[in-house]
Design brief:
binds ligand FNR, two-stranded antiparallel sheet, alpha/beta, 12 strands, 8-stranded parallel beta sheet
Length: about 375
């Protein structure tokens, strides 16, 4: 599509099309949103080194993430409520990822269930779990993911307790959403979105309702979510959860070199350097700023991925140049999905692929495997301005 040349174009359409409640849910961070903003603005502090006259033919963005071939090292991050951004949104996003040749990671808090996504796709996807208290429910989730053919388990470790997002509280976005007269009035202006939603049966948390103890209908969900998360989570528990899955495990939400070392000790296969897209600890440093020290600590021991703040192929290139083997995008694909469904996710991925490919060429590299510190100029103090 000629009118889509950057992720921002999809975001504009997304904002028009989706109810404010769900737009705000994606487009926000916790408290002052400082970390949310800096996740992206810190990428801008890193500059690229222009190189010329280095044969740029035959470039390739192809790589591997956890041994899996990927057309570019950019996975779709687990995003809750994706099926409210666009009807059957998880299925649409998973299909786009499959067509594009990148991993799709389904969230526990998805609208479409694991089984439903598996039924409507052909390739294995990744599954994300939160660390919950209920062992039976967790074990059943693991078993369901295994039975659905999921390859990789992503354990999100940065949401033991939940950061506060002002907009969600004000909009009544809870599980299930509390509809205020204002949000109903806003929804009524989003006609194409509303018609799509009326046309699907998938409107509740498909992995939870009917599966978790006491959650037989959507109205019982909010008391479950308040209770379910394991505030007592520690490294022994993470080691135990890891032992329940016999495939690759990613620990997502590591932002500290000491925690990265622990992740290696408990047997994770990869970590995602992430602050949950600025939705948890506001005031934490951006993922990209923390990446170099985490690479120094564990870069030779474990595969390192990065998310939070990526909005372009240049951002992906910078993360790879600083050592990440792969990246994940959250909002960048949600904008595409909300704007134009499956096609919009394809467009988001294509925008990023093209930017990555061209920028690689302008930096004088032909393969993502060759990207490294030689391609970037990092400002002094980028890692250590804060004591
Ligand atoms: C998330 N994220 C998230 N992570 C997770 O492990 N499970 C989840 O259910 C969710 N849900 C969720 C909803 C929304 C609306 C957003 C924006 C994010 C975090 C997500 O996986 C990822 O870490 C961030 O989105 C990365 O930051 P960017 O790419 O959105 O800036």
């Amino acid at each position: 599509m000629a009118d889509i040349t950057e992720i921002e174009d999809l975001k504009r359409i997304y904002k028009r099309r989706v109810p404010k409640m769900f737009y705000d849910y994606a487009e926000s961070g916790s408290w002052t949103e400082q970390t949310f903003r800096e996740n992206s603005s810190d990428f801008d502090l890193i500059r690229l080194r222009q190189r010329i006259a280095r044969d740029m033919t035959g470039r390739s963005t192809a790589s591997e993430m956890l041994g899996q071939h990927v057309s570019m090292p950019v996975a779709l991050a687990p995003v809750g409520l994706t099926g409210m951004q666009s009807a059957d949104g998880e299925i649409k996003a998973a299909r786009a990822a499959e067509r594009f040749g990148v991993p799709f990671c389904l969230s526990t808090m998805s609208i479409c269930s694991i089984e439903d996504v598996a039924e409507h796709t052909n390739k294995p996807f990744w599954f994300q779990v939160y660390t919950l208290k209920d062992d039976d429910f967790m074990k059943r989730l693991f078993a369901r993911a295994k039975a659905a053919g999921c390859t990789t388990l992503v354990i999100t470790v940065d949401l033991q307790i939940m950061g506060q997002r002002h907009k969600d509280i004000k909009n009544g976005l809870s599980a299930p959403p509390k509809l205020t007269p204002k949000s109903i009035a806003n929804m009524m202006t989003k006609v194409p979105w509303g018609l799509e939603m009326l046309g699907t049966k998938r409107r509740f948390f498909g992995n939870i309702v009917g599966h978790a103890k006491g959650v037989t209908d959507p109205s019982s969900l909010s008391s479950w979510t308040a209770e379910a998360f394991d505030h007592a989570l520690d490294w022994d528990r993470i080691r135990e959860l890891r032992s329940w899955w016999d495939g690759p495990v990613v620990l997502k939400g590591i932002l500290d070199a000491d925690d990265a070392r622990k992740a290696v000790e408990v047997g994770a296969d990869a970590i995602t350097v992430s602050n949950h897209g600025g939705r948890q600890l506001d005031g934490a440093l951006s993922s990209i700023r923390m990446l170099p020290q985490i690479m120094d600590a564990v870069g030779d021991k474990i595969e390192v991925h990065l998310d939070s703040g990526i909005r372009s192929g240049q951002d992906v290139l910078k993360a790879l140049a600083l050592g990440a083997k792969g990246t994940m995008i959250g909002r960048a694909f949600v904008y595409g999905l909300g704007a134009r469904g499956e096609q919009g996710v394809m467009e988001a991925l294509e925008v990023i692929r093209k930017e990555l490919d061209t920028t690689m060429g302008l930096c004088g590299e032909r393969s993502v495997h060759d990207l490294g510190r030689q391609n970037v100029l990092v400002p002094k103090g980028f890692q250590g301005e804060w004591e």
